TrEMBL record:
Keywords: Signal. It comes from Triticum aestivum (Wheat). One of its GO terms (cellular component) is membrane. It is found in: Membrane. It is a single-pass membrane protein. This is Malectin-like domain-containing protein. The lineage of its organism: Eukaryota, Viridiplantae, Streptophyta, Embryophyta, Tracheophyta. Residues 1-32 form the signal peptide. Residues 42-281 form the Malectin-like domain. The keyword Signal applies. The keyword Signal applies. InterPro entries: Malectin-like_Carb-bd_dom (IPR024788).
Amino acid sequence: MVISFGCSARRRPTWILALLLLILITMIRVHGQSSTSGFISLDCGYRNTSPYKDSVIRGIQLLSDVGFVEGGLTHQIAAEFMSGAVYESQKTLRSFPNGSRNCYTLPSTTGKKFLLRALFTYGDYDGLNRTVDGTLFLFGLHIGVNFWDTLNLTNMDPSNTLWKEVLTVAPGDSVSVCLINFGLGTPSVSALELRPLLDAMYPFVNTSVSVGYFRRIRFGEATNFITRYPVDPYDRFWEQWALNSYPWINLNTSSQVEILPGDDYFNVPMAIFQKATTLDTNYSSS
Ligand SMILES: *[C@@H]1O[C@H](CO)[C@@H](O)[C@H](O)[C@H]1NC(C)=O
Ligand SMILES: *[C@@H]1O[C@H](CO)[C@@H](O)[C@H](O)[C@H]1NC(C)=O
Ligand SMILES: *[C@@H]1O[C@H](CO)[C@@H](O)[C@H](O)[C@H]1NC(C)=O
Ligand SMILES: *[C@@H]1O[C@H](CO)[C@@H](O)[C@H](O)[C@H]1NC(C)=O
Ligand SMILES: *[C@@H]1O[C@H](CO)[C@@H](O)[C@H](O)[C@H]1NC(C)=O
Ligand SMILES: *[C@@H]1O[C@H](CO)[C@@H](O)[C@H](O)[C@H]1NC(C)=O
């Protein structure tokens, strides 16, 4: 059984992003930073307190979440799903059966812009098949006192991994990420990741505006469903575009993709710009 990544997929908006990406291609400069300095990667529920490196996410050091949260119980996903885990951090999780609000405290720097991501693999850790028992399975995510998102695990394949991502500015020298119990299932989390961004990036994100993840898609051929660090020095998740069969045609180039100086808004990696998808112009659907 393979642990796969799932989002509540909706087909139509892909078009908007496809267009947006094409427009952005003409105006974005590639800019590199390839250090993991400031990265915080917590493997929730992992009990060994020595840091480790994941063989798939090369170069990133993961830590147990011990010391970043109080309470909760540590678990492993069911044995049948273990071999399908892409990342080590999907194998363990921490659940919060008690309390309506349980918070992690992650160190940060006041005013620093960063990406915050939380990953959730249910993996039938409690043996209850809770995602497919026919009842609602929902819990909330807050950043401090602000609502971030709702996790809806109802009817989810237990081997799926959901993730939520937000671009935000640290309000203080720490950021608190809270799991909110709605009384519709025990909240749990598998991994928490904090990635610093350049201040110039995403200029519409500021102390009063944060931006949640909808989709971030890469076109052309991709080896994995998720492209991330080290291809993207900021470790953003880029989803492989689903429609890569005829009449869609994958293109690639090994040339340097032309970039404009002075535009640090998105810093899309050149490796992503070097691949694209086009439609066979001879194709007609009617
Ligand atoms: C939850 O609360 C019960 C009753 O107060 C307590 O026995 C148990 O240890 C708590 N569990 C966790 C994970 O905090
Ligand atoms: C969970 O679902 C699996 C597959 O549908 C089934 O084999 C198993 O018996 C279920 N477990 C429980 C506790 O209902
Ligand atoms: C959660 O997902 C279920 C199944 O897809 C759906 O029926 C329900 O409306 C969703 N609830 C919310 C609050 O999104
Ligand atoms: C944040 O950005 C929004 C939209 O661009 C703007 O209206 C708002 O004044 C900004 N807030 C701060 C504190 O700069
Ligand atoms: C690049 O495109 C060519 C065809 O134009 C194809 O043969 C080659 O496999 C592609 N390479 C990659 C890395 O996608
Ligand atoms: C489209 O049709 C033209 C003329 O028949 C042909 O030369 C060309 O190779 C076709 N393009 C593709 C992508 O099949």
